[in-house]
Specification:
Elements: H1 22-27, E1 35-38, H2 45-50, E2 56-59, H3 64-75, H4 77-89, H5 93-101, H6 108-120
Parallel strand pairs: 1-2
Helix pairs in contact: 3-6, 4-6
Length: 153
């Protein structure tokens, strides 16, 4: 199997991600398959590496906010980018906890920006853990978010 070198890369680091072993996993994929099924999407490392090898890709994960975020980012990256820029401008301990505590929106763009802001604003070792009530338990990140914007390309 040939892998394209200009393939987009994952934009999230994920605990238990397959980024480090993606090449080894790719080598195990049999030739001639039409569909790719990813039951544990996470940061999407394997998907981003092999997506051009298949006619269709089916992505899933148990984390509803993660799946919502991938779908919203595919449909409306500009809106999410704008919301992330707002989060970055307002970034403070109080603002972070305010955003982390809000979980009442049905708008996929707002859900996604909140998810990306709260899950990427911290070092990986402090990554989010969901409680049974789906409340984020992430501590306030001491470092500033490096938001580079999202495009529809």
């Amino acid at each position: 199997m040939t892998i394209q070198t200009n393939t987009p890369k994952p934009f999230l680091q994920w605990v238990g991600g397959k980024r480090r072993i993606a090449d080894q996993l790719t080598a195990l994929i049999p030739a001639g398959l039409n569909n790719y099924y990813e039951p544990f999407l996470g940061g999407g490392a394997l998907f981003f590496q092999v997506k051009n090898l298949f006619k269709q890709c089916f992505l899933s994960d148990i984390n509803l906010d993660l799946v919502t975020s991938y779908n919203a980012l595919k449909k409306n990256p500009e809106a999410i980018s704008s919301l992330l820029e707002k989060h970055n401008r307002n970034h403070s301990r109080e603002y972070y906890y305010q955003i982390r505590g809000i979980n009442s929106s049905n708008n996929p763009d707002i859900i996604s920006a909140r998810f990306f802001y709260t899950s990427t604003a911290m070092p990986l070792r402090e990554f989010a853990a969901l409680t049974r009530t789906a409340a984020w338990m992430c501590p306030f990140p001491l470092r500033r978010i490096k938001h580079q914007g999202l495009t529809s390309d």
